[in-house]
Amino acid sequence: MNIMDFNVKKLAADAGTFLSRAVQFTEEKLGQAEKTELDAHLENLLSKAECTKLWTEKIMKQTEVLLQPNPNARIEEFVYEKLDRKAPSRMNNPELLGQYMIDAGNEFGPGTAYGNALIKCGETQKRIGAADRELIQTSAINFLTPLRNFIEGDYKTITKERKLLQNKRLDLDAAKTRLKKAKVAEARAAQLNTSQPEENNIMSEQEVRITQSEFDRQAEITRLLLEGISSTHAHHLRCLNDFVEAQMTYYAQCYQYMLDLQKQLGSFPSTFLSNNNQASTTPVQSVSSPSVLASASASLPSVSNSMVTSGLSELKSSSGSRKARVLYDYDAANSSELSLLADEVITVYSIPGMDSDWLMGERGNQKGKVPITYLELLN
How far apart are CA 256 and CA 23, in angstroms? Predict the structure, then answer.
């Protein structure tokens, strides 16, 4: 027998097996053939594996969305990963915001209150961006990769063996169907007193024994693989702990960065007013936990508002004047304003109809409008 004859016979046998399985499957769906049911333990393991696969995929995909909200960036990373190439490094959102703030602060002038604050905030945003990168990298290695390995590795193996088990079951049930038909034919021949070759029954019974043995062996292989799902859960639990630890580190870093920024901004003048003519809150003192910060912040606005605006309200409602120390250099934008030098002391007062963010300032014979945010009223 040459190789070509062997291949032809093999293809014919495979086609026959496929046809037999297709007929058996169709008859089962139509209720015309009996089906060998898997034992309850194996069915439970299969259900547990499917449930694990379903929720692992959902958790993995949503974690990717959490770590990288931009869908275009996720697609780009996926393409580079498939091409086995490193994605180009780009600024993330906090880093980009931080750079804009720093550039704006330098444009407005680092010596001005607003420019200095923008630079400080920008530097903090860039540190948060770096922490965000570290969170993404750590989570990808310790959490997403093990989940993806299960979906693309272990579960694919389980799916392959489960498909083999399905084929072995169809072979077994097809053999049982042929044996049943052979016995019916034998009984009918006996009734008609005609001879029926016993070889048909013997071959059918032998085929059932062989297919039953193959089915039992494949069921055992599948069962052993499925019982490994419990170990998968234990491994994913450890990965989940790593993910939570990475998040905890990230949020702790962000909290500390913002706390440090708040302390830096606390050195700015306490008379800063917002655009809606309401005083801003004073900096919160150093605290030991976020809960303390939250409770302290909740009670701060009413107290700080009164402290910040009390002196200015008295000054604006009276016709008197006060001494004020200049906190930052200020260049007058037009002839109606007064240029200022840091640390000099000038006289300030309010006039009817003046914008709430400004006072009139006097220095010797010079007079003009000055911004409140650049002043500290003296007692």
Answer: 68
